[in-house]
Design goal:
This protein has 490 residues and is of the alpha+beta class. 14% of the residues lie in helices and 24% in strands. It has two domains: 107 residues, Immunoglobulin-like (Sandwich), CATH 2.60.40; 349 residues, 4-Layer Sandwich (Purple Acid Phosphatase, chain A, domain 2), CATH 3.60.21. Strands 13-12-11-22-23-24-19 form a seven-stranded mixed sheet. The two termini are 41 Å apart.
Length: 490
């Protein structure tokens, strides 16, 4: 039976935003009292569960080799963090410290000091989400998406090139930073150990993670075994060999480092329907609803897969956001380093489950975009519906949104997609494989997949720019150039 994995956050401090301590001197002048600790630079620092009124700040270690920080001070003035904001951290079994801040104001920039200094560095801040359903002050939400970036953390520089490409793109397009950072699995090669997470994530995206919430999904390499695990429980996480990349995490936490590193919502803390497990979850940001599915573990067990499918249906029916995005690891339509027509000895069985059982749910319940990794390539489908079979069963005439010439529409120029398709229904999805965040490898027989409009072996990432009535998805290379894009309007 399905056993939910529920993180324990007991004892994490709850504080109200904007509070300050004041002291009246003998002349009746009010003097603010700021925090008086010393700022620590952790070896890993990242933001979790950022919403319109909350955030979790999580860290571990001290790059200077001194004591680890045990508290946070925060406020809206970088130079004056009030003493009353000081919040003690809870330490997990695997040595992470985390602080939950609540009562924050929507759409507001807060600065923070890990260690409780009275001022913050200009790289330690976060910006709360707008109220649910509202737009950011500039009208645009920018989302950065990478897949299979972990391979770049094993000594190869590719993930850094992809990161820099996004930074160049952002600088050239409004100088706007990412509001959300989504990771499509295989975030830490080869076996998803704690040390590999450090090298592939925290040492690569250091500055971004200190300011931008990261939302991951589970890939096959998160389960150890050099990516070959077909287990359905995180308790079966295993490391092959005795190299220097670490091993299972200690009890009482899960042996799976992914679940111990990230603190993901289980009870609808940031919107969405409670899932009861960190393996899959959903959340709201501005006018966007995002779902992360577990295509590695839950999907391999009949009962757990059925539970996740029912939760997905209920979750998609329960929200009223303008846009809906789903992320998971195993792509339903690919001819890259994995072939969605072949199960590869069962390792790729989740590809078939996603295509046969989950894509009909996406299309029935109004999902707009679906993102996967796994294949080390970029592939983007047409705006499609109903392809649950092998690539040979794809029929563009009946499954793709067509243009005025009865050809599959590109999503570009005067062929932009509309959320309500020409048939009068919101029943089509654009499926993208973005497993090119750390390496590109090769293609398989039948490349390109006939459901895909654009396929290219090129390092890069995806940037989404979303406002009230328009969404643009861009494939950005390591130079910041846009190689593919599509537009969807409401």
């Amino acid at each position: 039976m399905f056993k939910p994995i529920i993180p324990v956050l007991a004892g994490i401090g709850l504080v109200a935003a904007g509070c300050s301590d004041n002291n009246n001197d003998n002349d009746g002048i009010t003097v603010a009292i700021n925090c008086s600790g010393t700022q620590v630079t952790p070896e890993r620092l990242f933001l979790q569960q950022l919403g319109f009124d909350r955030v979790i700040i999580k860290w571990r270690g001290n790059v200077d080799g001194g004591p680890e920080a045990d508290n946070v001070c925060f406020g809206t003035d970088m130079a004056a963090l009030p003493a009353s904001s000081k919040t003690q951290a809870t330490v997990t079994a695997t040595g992470h410290s985390e602080v939950l801040l609540t009562g924050l104001q929507p759409g507001t920039t807060y600065y923070y000091s890990v260690g409780g200094a009275g001022s913050a560095s200009d790289t330690h801040y976060f910006h709360t989400a707008p109220a649910v359903g509202e737009l950011p002050a500039d009208g645009n939400t920018r989302i950065w998406i990478v897949g299979d970036s972990g391979v770049g953390g094993t000594g190869d520089p590719e993930a850094g090139y992809v990161r820099d490409g996004f930074m160049t793109f952002a600088s050239n397009n409004g100088d706007e930073a990412a509001d959300l950072f989504l990771m499509l699995g295989d975030n830490a090669y080869n076996q998803g150990t704690d040390m590999e997470h450090q090298a592939a994530i925290f040492d690569v995206y250091t500055d971004l993670l200190a300011t931008t919430p990261v939302w991951p999904t589970i890939g096959n390499h998160e389960m150890g075994s050099f990516g070959t695990s077909m287990a359905s429980s995180p308790d079966d996480y295993a490391v092959i060999g005795n190299g220097n990349s670490g091993g299972p995490d200690p009890a009482p936490d899960s042996p799976m480092p992914y679940l111990n590193i990230f603190t993901l919502p289980t009870s609808g803390e940031v919107g969405g329907l409670p899932s009861g497990t960190e393996q899959y979850y959903s959340f709201d940001y501005a006018n966007i609803h995002i779902v992360s599915l577990d295509s590695q573990l839950s999907i391999r067990d009949d009962d757990n897969r059925a539970a996740m499918m029912q939760w997905l249906k209920d979750d998609l029916m329960s929200h009223s956001q303008d846009w809906t995005i789903v992320i998971y690891h195993h792509p339903p339509y690919t001819k890259g380093s994995h072939d969605s027509d072949k199960e590869l000895g069962g390792i790729d069985q989740p590809i078939f489950a996603i295509r046969e059982e989950f894509t009909p749910i996406f299309e029935q319940y109004g999902v707009d975009l679906a993102y996967a990794g796994h294949s080390h390539i970029y592939e983007r489908s047409y705006y499609i519906n109903g392809n649950t079979g092998l690539s040979t069963t794809f029929d563009a005439a009946t499954m793709a949104e067509l243009n005025d010439d009865d050809q599959p529409a590109s999503g570009q120029g005067n062929e932009a997609y509309t959320q309500i398709a020409r048939n009068g229904m919101d029943d089509k999805v654009v499926y993208t494989v973005a497993g090119n965040g750390g390496k590109v490898t090769y293609t398989t027989e039948g490349f390109p997949h006939p459901a895909n409009f654009f396929s290219q072996l090129e390092l890069g990432s995806v940037v989404l720019d979303i406002d009230e009535n328009r969404l643009q998805a861009s494939f950005v290379d390591v130079n910041g150039a846009v190689l593919d894009y599509f537009v969807m309007t409401r």
